[in-house]
Amino acid sequence: MSLHEITLNTLDGTPQSLAAYKGKVVLAVNVASECGFTPQYAGLQKLYTEQKERGFVVLGFPSNQFGAQEPGTAAQIGTFCRKNYGVTFPLFEKLDVKGAAKAPLYQFLTARHGEPAWNFHKYLIGKDGQVLQAFPSKVAPDSAELKAAIEAALK
After folding, report:
1. Where are the domains of the chain?
2. CA angle 83, 7, 59 (to 5 degrees)
3. How many CB atoms sit inside 10 A of residue 43's CB?
4. Given this model, what pLDDT does residue 2 score?
5. pLDDT in tens, 65-92
6. Is 81 among the residues known to form the active site?
7. C-alpha closest to that of 95 among 103, 86, 87, 83
8. Whether 106 contacts 18, CB under 8 Å
9. Residue 47 has what pLDDT?
């Protein structure tokens, strides 16, 4: 199994095969609009802007499973992210990241790297579609630890 075998709907409901990211380094993040970590959207956008030409992409996966901190509709989520943080990286429809109804994407991501404990948990995926490492919410997008792991994956 690899990331590239999964298809999900984007925030506007369009099916998107994650095979589109073959050969790219991906940072998959479960996001929420009403969380103490929500300001990380700015850092994620900055990372994406700085590294996208090198084959790096951030993928945001809204989830309402932690403190009901993502209650909005897809349209509300998209507007919030663009207006408040200038988000241009791909965002997908809300999904479950843990528990019995966990989405296939998160079944894959968590198989060897554990379920997210909160919003803004990050999974770094290599060019081959395999999970390299996971980072808890408290690891900020501009942290030396995350930046070093992304740099190593891009080489």
Report:
1. 3-154
2. 35
3. 17
4. 96
5. 999 999 999 999 999 999 999 999 999 9
6. no
7. 103
8. no
9. 97
Q: How many Cβ atoms sit within 10 Å of the Cβ of residue 85?
A: 18
Sheet with 25-31, edge to edge strand ranges: 56-62, 25-31, 122-125, 131-135
Q: What is the mean pLDDT of residues 27-40?
A: 97
What average pLDDT does range 45-60 have in this prediction? 98
Tokens of 62: 């809204």
Place of tokens 């988000």: 87
124, 133 contact by CB (below 8 A): yes
The CATH number of 3-154 is 3.40.30.10
∠ CA 102-12-62, rounded to 5°: 35
What's the pTM? Answer: 0.97
Instruction: Report d(CA 99, CA 15) in Å as an integer.
Output: 24
Catalytic-role residue among 6, 11, 29, 35: 35
- Three-class secondary structure of residue 4 per DSSP: helix
Provide the percentage of residues in the chain whose pLDDT is more than 90.
99
Strand partners, 61: 30
Radius of gyration for the chain, computed over Cα atoms and rounded to the nearest angstrom: 14
Question: How far is the C-alpha of 52 from the C-alpha of 38, rounded, in Å?
Answer: 21
